[in-house]
Design goal:
Blueprint lengths: L2 E6 L3 H13 L6 E6 L2 H10 L1 E4 L4 E4 L3 E3 L2 H4 L2 E6 L6 H6 L5 E9 L6 H8 L4 E2 L1 E12 L2 E14 L5 H13 L4 E3 L3 H22 L3 H5 L2 H20 L8 H10 L8 H7 L6 H14 L5 H11 L5
Parallel strand pairs: 1-2, 1-6, 2-5, 3-10, 6-7, 7-8, 10-11
Antiparallel strand pairs: 3-4, 9-10
Helix pairs in contact: 7-9, 7-11, 7-12, 7-13, 9-10, 12-13
InterPro entries: 6-PGluconate_DH-like_C_sf, 6PGD_dom2, ApbA, KPA_reductase, KPR-Related, KPR_N, NAD(P)-bd_dom_sf
Enzyme class: oxidoreductase
Pathway: Cofactor biosynthesis; (R)-pantothenate biosynthesis; (R)-pantoate from 3-methyl-2-oxobutanoate: step 2/2
Length: about 300
């Protein structure tokens, strides 16, 4: 019987890693990759496949199944989900019949509240924690562009058996996905969240790319203030962050392409709905919960909420 893996959300993250899985298991008798898509994305992939553009090459992949019909999709053994955070609940609504109590769900979102939100929908399931470091984006429906060679996927769970986690790790490894099964996954996810939340908030507020943040002293000061506030929240929650987490985060940003920006900033520029609730407001709410002041986050939140795109 085949192991069936659904990919929900074929954007920069889901499209890229889903594409690697579809390519690796195209002729497999034991693993079937299912792309869950609708609208223009579904039409484009059905006609031309999913195209992934790399720095020096490109590839086109076709999943074993492409659908948004729960009846056609059928029951899933694994579900890797990477939609926008504001779509978590609605994206699951149409495929809830594909999820059994044994379906293992791996969220790969920008925020840190996805696991809890999914568990509210499926309390009996193994819902893992995960995060990725990658620069990738939708160039057009069915076309993903990845910039640079850096890509890492981290996942884990305190409640899921190690044998199930190792089985998923093996699936990733056989697809040449650089993945890491992490014991202290909550801290790892928060390290990524510190990076992406501060960057998304700063780039969107200042309307600047990474270079514009790092090379302008005033902008960099705002960014560092955000890092200090979110790190204080993480510590107040009892998370064991590295002592040099702020320095490490700045170094990561310095190694990123200077002309790149956050996905939230890209969405803001395009006039799309933005993930301000999960990336900015969440920090303010957690600050209130743990009595940690977050004045810079609050100021930026007020401006972004007033942009009417959230």
């Amino acid at each position: 019987m085949k192991t069936r893996i659904g990919i929900l959300g074929l954007g920069g993250v889901g499209g890229y890693f889903g594409g690697l899985l579809a390519k690796a298991y195209a002729d497999s008798d034991t693993i079937e990759i299912v792309f869950i898509a609708r609208g223009e994305t579904k039409k484009a992939i059905a006609a031309n496949g999913l195209k992934i553009i790399l720095d020096e090459s490109e590839m086109i992949v076709f999943p074993k199944l492409l659908s948004d019909d729960a009846e056609k999709i059928g029951k899933l053994d694994y579900l890797i989900c990477a939609t926008k955070t504001y779509d978590i609940e609605t994206s699951f609504e149409s495929i809830k019949d594909c999820i059994t109590s044994k379906t293992i769900i791996l969220p790969l979102y920008n925020g840190v509240d996805a696991t809890e939100r999914i568990l509210n929908l499926f309390p009996e399931n193994n819902v893992l924690q995960g995060c990725v470091y990658i620069v990738s984006m939708i160039e057009s429906p069915g076309v993903i562009k990845k910039i640079g060679h850096y890509e890492k996927l981290f996942f884990g769970s305190k409640n899921t058996s190690i044998s199930l986690l190792k089985e998923l790790q093996s699936i990733f490894e056989n697809a040449s996905i650089e993945s890491y099964l992490v014991e202290n996954i909550e801290e790892t996810v928060w390290e990524k969240f510190i990076f992406i939340s501060a960057l998304a908030s700063a780039t969107s507020y200042l309307n600047e790319n990474i270079g514009g943040i790092l090379n302008n002293p005033n902008n960099k000061a705002i960014y560092i203030s955000l890092l200090n506030e979110i790190t204080a929240v993480a510590l107040a929650k009892g998370l064991a962050m590295p002592n040099d987490i702020i320095v490490q985060t700045i170094i990561k940003l310095e190694k990123s392409p200077q002309d790149n920006t956050s996905s939230m900033h890209r969405d803001l520029l395009a006039g799309h709905k933005i993930e301000v609730n999960s990336l900015t407001e969440f920090v303010v709410k957690e600050g209130l919960k743990y009595a940690v002041p977050t004045p810079m986050y609050r100021m930026i939140l007020d401006k972004l909420m007033n942009s009417n795109i959230y």
